[in-house]
Amino acid sequence: MKTKRKLNISAVFTNLLLAILVGFVFHVTVGVDPIIPTAVVFGAGTGLQFLGMELPKGAFMAGVYREIWTGELVESFKPHLEASFLNEIKDYSEKVSQSKGGEYEFIHLVDIGADPEVLINNNTYPIGYTELEDGDIAFKLDTYDTKATRVTADELYAISYDKVAKVNGTHKDAILGAKFGKGTHALAPMTDTSNTPVILTTGVTEAGKKRASKADIIRTARAMTVAGIPNDGRRVLILDEWHLYDLLLEDDRFYDKYVNIEAGTVKARFYGFKVYTYSNNPFYAGTAKASYGTVFDEDVHNRASVAFYAPDMFKCTGSTIMYYDEPDTQYHASAVNFTHRYLVSPKKARGVAALVTANE
After folding, report:
1. How far is CA 106 from the centre of its chain?
2. Residue 296 CB-density burial (10 A; 0-12 exposed, 13-18 middle, 19+ buried)
3. Of 18, 19, 77, 131, whose Cβ has the fewest other Cβ atoms within 10 Å?
4. What does the DSSP 8-state code read for residue 262?
């Protein structure tokens, strides 16, 4: 009795996808009509399947999985509205360089030294020289690793685009949340200094905490001026959401004057700052910034809004690497995770400020 040959729709689709990919490569590299290699590869693959000579499961597929997963993840790493204040910062990604073994990525900035001295009505000669000694400032990019997600072989066999999107979505969101939170943390002062002022709120006391007030925003702006930070329209304020609520409670007119009613956000300009709101700002113990990753404790920590001078900050994106384990004999499942490198930082310990909720 003859066995009927049946074509697997998923396998036919996979053959077609692979054939189109091969046809495109031949067209780009050799210049041939893409229809010819596409037809040959599709016909051969489908014919082998019809004759019962199926390709081994997983053949050609690992590379395709990698291309789809990595392509979708990298494509998703675009600034989104939740951390759009990072768009104010210049991108130095083209200056990123790898270590010799590729384990790390660095960016090198040049410190050009002190400004030349200016002489007024000078009558002493020779005038003399100011030596501008260039110095190297090296920054190591932060590395973000996701824990692996396990995916069964049945899900991978026919490349379920929905599954790929779901897996990528979870990894993308995890990395975005971590890197934007860490980046915001880096834009906040370590502690109160003459170059990096930390201002405490002075508003009405509620539950043992002093609310933020409009006067506090003005005090923060003034402290930045005293620190020598230019007020040329490029100061950015990342307003903590709790501080926004404080301002709304302080003055009913604030809502009409400064809040975009449709979006529920503060309007772009506020006392010299370009304003954004964010829900994952760093927090402080007194005027000392808590380490990134510290669990917030209301008895110890207080919320903060962060201000920075955009031209004195930088950001850079390094590599995104996908790691993929083939399905094994026991669990028939693969695992996938990602490494992503990224950094946001001030160029020097200056140009940043914070407004921190004060205790009663």
Report:
1. 16
2. exposed
3. 131
4. T
3-state secondary structure of 162: helix
Q: Please state the rounded mean pLDDT for residues 332-350.
A: 88
State the Cα–Cα distance between residues 341 and 317, nearest whole angstrom. 6
176 and 194 Cβ atoms separated by less than 8 Å: no
Q: Is the peptide bond before 126 cis (omega within 30 degrees of 0)?
A: yes
Give the count of beta carbons closer than 10 Å to the beta carbon of residue 161: 10
- The architecture in CATH of the region 79-107+139-360 reads Alpha-Beta Complex (3.90)
Sequence-distant (6+) residues with CB within 8 A of 282 are 184, 185, 188, 289, 290, 292, 304, 306, 354
The tokens describing 57, both together, are: 């499961």
Amino acid at 244: L
Q: How many CA atoms lie within 13 A of 259 on its CB side?
A: 17
pLDDT, one tens digit per residue, over 200-257 is: 999 999 999 999 999 999 999 999 999 999 999 999 999 998 998 898 888 766 666 6
Indicate the residue type of 1: M
- Cα pseudo-dihedral 261, 263, 266, 272, rounded to 10: -110
- Distance (Å, rounded) from C-alpha 228 to C-alpha 225? 5
Angle formed by the axes of helices 61-76 and 9-29, nearest 10°: 70
Angle at 307 between CA 253 and CA 82, to 5 degrees: 80
Strand, helix or coil for residue 326: coil
Q: Six-digit token pair at 3?
A: 């066995």
35 DSSP assignment: H
Domain segments of the chain: what residues? 9-55, 79-107+139-360
Cα 303 to its chain centre, rounded Å, is 22
Find out whether 192 and 227 touch, Cβ atoms under 8 Å. no
Exposure of 298 by Cβ count < 10 A (0-12 exposed, 13-18 middle, 19+ buried)?
A: exposed
Look up residue 1 and give its two tokens. Answer: 């009795």
Alpha carbon 205 to its chain centroid, in Å, reads 36
Please tell me the pTM assigned to this model: 0.71
Query: DSSP readout, 269-286?
Result: EETTEEEEEES---EEET
Question: Where does residue 244 rank: exposed (0-12), middle (13-18), buried (19+ CB within 10 A)?
Answer: buried
What is the arithmetic mean of pLDDT over 61-86? Answer: 64
